[in-house]
């Protein structure tokens, strides 16, 4: 079975085809064009490279959040609509988990941080388990200091990756010193190949991949709702 | 780009239209631009009501939640499958960028997966073409597009050829309706509420100013009128006077309608057309429809407007406008992007 991986959650766009135990084709673009312009031509390219037609796909995996709200919706609308037309399962893969997958099986803790603005990061703490990544905390939007408090509790090394790393590098290194391992350029962003691979695992584990219920996981309400709830004391 | 079966097997051209430019998620199937096989509209009005207006981020989230079920319903209602479609059409501007992107992304995914031509449309163009559903008028025409975001007078010589002859210099007519409804405490959206109230009031009760601008101008201005209504309400409040809301609504609406109809009829006469089209959300306003007909009649000019359901944002008008582009083979590439400030006749592809 072949699966198409799609990622438009952060500043990079990615598309990949995986199947038959290998990554068949992959594209990764970090340029000035928008995801809206990039993503469909990229999908067409990786499908052509793999020698596949849309009908040959057995499933679609897409980064389901957190990330840029607009980016998540572009990927989600594309993935769900392709799944609808083709009648195949569509699974959402956590953007944080996809990032952590870049360094799966490394020892210590893995901490993806996405810049969530307003002095917060979207983050989660993972540990490489025997059968995959184990979540040590729930994915959430939180202040960098709160995250670093959490990570200071034990003495393990922590690999940091994601677009929040350059933003909060000083704070991270300041608190954790040599325990903080910063990711290299090639594993700093989500990879569509990882999204495809993780999606494949989920489908094999019995995830139904019903596109009708699949939605982005924003981890944050809209500004208007936050303001409204403050005003109305909720 | 054109699939082989086009114009061969099926006698009719079946287009799936998608519209997500503001707060309605809509998909429709229209054959040959006039036979409406389905027109599904999922309105978000209740979602935005507590905020007193459309919240772009919430609208975008709702679109992505609703788009696929709306597409599903549009096909089921039309009794067709994806394989029966000849082209996919979508609004790519003007509108809320995050909202537009949901429809554009879905439409491109459809076009790629089904190897179908993609047609990108201007939202204003779609409102105009709501008049071509069912029984298309003959061109040339002058069209008045009135909505929450637009007040445009357009001369349409032939399909796809638009000349903007006038537009608002400040507030759009629909915007003035919404703002006045808010200060009157009527709620949102304001247009239909004022229209209903105005039907019971006296339009001569309050003499509000009519901004005609320069004598040869077809431009509009509604901000002065809006301020006058505010002043009137403030004065009444200070004096402790009770206002008659129906009279106020009728007088305000009368002032808007006067300027809109005068300029539209004058434009139609100047451009020598025999048909005026009304389009956009405010085209559903009964006072505007009635008055425009009454004033155009002596000049032998007929006035046409879409049914109310086609005045609001809907995808049937998208699929209809797309049909005329389909005939001209004006197809968009898969790099099509949302263009929030798209100008009529200034396509970016
Ligand atoms: Zn509209």
Verbal overview:
- The complex is a heterodimer of chains A (234) and B (349).
- With 234 residues, chain A is of the alpha/beta class.
- Chain A is 36% helix and 27% strand.
- Chain A contains seven helices and twelve strands.
- In chain A, strands 6, 7, 8, 9, 10, 11 and 12 form a seven-stranded mixed sheet that branches. In chain A, strands 3-2-1-4-5 form a five-stranded mixed sheet, with helices on both faces.
- In chain A, strand 2 and strand 3 form a beta hairpin.
- In chain A, helix 1 packs across helix 2, helix 3 packs across helix 6 and helix 4 packs across helix 5.
- The radius of gyration of chain A is 18 Å and the shape is globular.
- With 349 residues, chain B is α/β, with parallel strands linked by helices.
- The N terminus of chain B is likely disordered.
- Classes of the chains: A alpha/beta (234), B alpha/beta (349).
- At the A-B interface, helix 1, helix 2 and helix 7 of A face helix 2 and helix 3 of B.
- Zinc ion binds next to helix 4 of chain B.
């Amino acid at each position: 079975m072949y699966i198409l991986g799609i990622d438009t959650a952060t500043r990079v766009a990615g598309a990949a085809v995986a199947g038959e135990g290998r990554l068949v084709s992959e594209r990764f673009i970090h340029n000035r064009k928008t995801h809206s312009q990039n993503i469909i031509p990229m999908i067409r390219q990786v499908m052509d490279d793999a020698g596949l037609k849309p009908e040959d796909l057995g499933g679609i995996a897409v980064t389901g959040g957190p990330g840029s709200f607009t980016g998540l919706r572009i990927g989600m609308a594309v993935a769900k609509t392709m799944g609808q037309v083709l009648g195949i399962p569509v699974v959402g893969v956590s953007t944080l988990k996809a990032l952590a997958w870049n360094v799966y099986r490394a020892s210590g803790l893995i901490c993806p941080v996405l810049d969530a603005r307003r002095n917060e990061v979207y983050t989660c703490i993972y540990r490489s388990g025997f059968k995959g990544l184990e979540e040590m905390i729930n994915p959430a939007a939180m202040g960098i200091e709160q995250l670093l408090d959490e990570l200071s509790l034990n003495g393990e090394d922590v690999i940091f990756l994601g677009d929040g790393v350059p933003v909060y590098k000083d704070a991270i290194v300041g608190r954790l010193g040599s325990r903080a391992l910063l990711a290299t350029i090639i594993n700093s962003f989500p990879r569509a190949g990882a999204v495809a691979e993780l999606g494949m695992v989920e489908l094999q584990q019995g995830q139904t991949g019903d596109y009708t219920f699949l939605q982005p996981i924003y981890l944050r309400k809209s500004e208007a709702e936050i303001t409204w709830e403050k005003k109305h004391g909720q | 780009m054109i699939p082989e079966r086009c114009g061969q097997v099926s006698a009719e051209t079946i287009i799936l239209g998608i519209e997500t430019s503001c707060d309605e998620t809509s998909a429709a199937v229209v054959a040959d631009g006039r036979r409406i096989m389905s027109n599904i509209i999922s309105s978000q009005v209740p979602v935005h009501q507590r905020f007193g207006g459309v919240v772009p981020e919430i609208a975008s989230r709702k679109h992505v939640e609703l788009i696929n079920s709306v597409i599903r319903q549009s096909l089921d209602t039309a009794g067709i499958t994806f394989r029966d479609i000849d082209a996919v059409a979508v609004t790519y501007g003007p509108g809320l960028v995050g909202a537009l992107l949901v429809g554009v992304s879905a439409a491109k995914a459809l076009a790629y997966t089904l190897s179908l031509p993609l047609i990108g449309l201007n939202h204003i163009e779609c409102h105009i073409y709501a008049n071509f559903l069912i029984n298309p008028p003959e061109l040339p025409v002058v069209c008045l597009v009135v909505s929450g975001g637009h007040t445009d007078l357009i001369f349409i010589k032939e399909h796809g050829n638009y000349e903007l002859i006038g537009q608002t210099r400040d507030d759009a007519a629909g915007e003035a309706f919404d703002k006045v409804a808010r200060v009157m405490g009527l709620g949102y959206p304001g247009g239909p509420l004022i229209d209903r109230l105005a039907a019971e009031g006296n339009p001569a009760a309050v003499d509000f100013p009519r901004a005609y601008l320069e004598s040869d101008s077809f431009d509009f201005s509604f901000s002065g009128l809006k301020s006058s209504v505010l002043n009137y309400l403030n004065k009444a409040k200070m004096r402790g006077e009770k206002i008659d809301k129906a009279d106020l609504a009728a007088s305000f609406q009368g002032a808007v309608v006067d300027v809109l109809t005068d300029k539209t009829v004058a434009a139609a006469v100047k451009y020598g057309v025999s048909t005026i089209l009304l389009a956009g959300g405010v085209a559903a306003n009964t006072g505007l429809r009635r008055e425009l007909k009454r004033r155009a009649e002596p000049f032998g000019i007929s006035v046409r407007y879409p049914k109310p359901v086609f005045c609001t944002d809907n995808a049937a008008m998208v699929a209809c406008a797309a049909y005329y582009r389909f005939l001209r083979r004006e197809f968009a590439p898969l790099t099509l992007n949302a263009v929030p400030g798209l100008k009529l006749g200034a396509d970016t592809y």
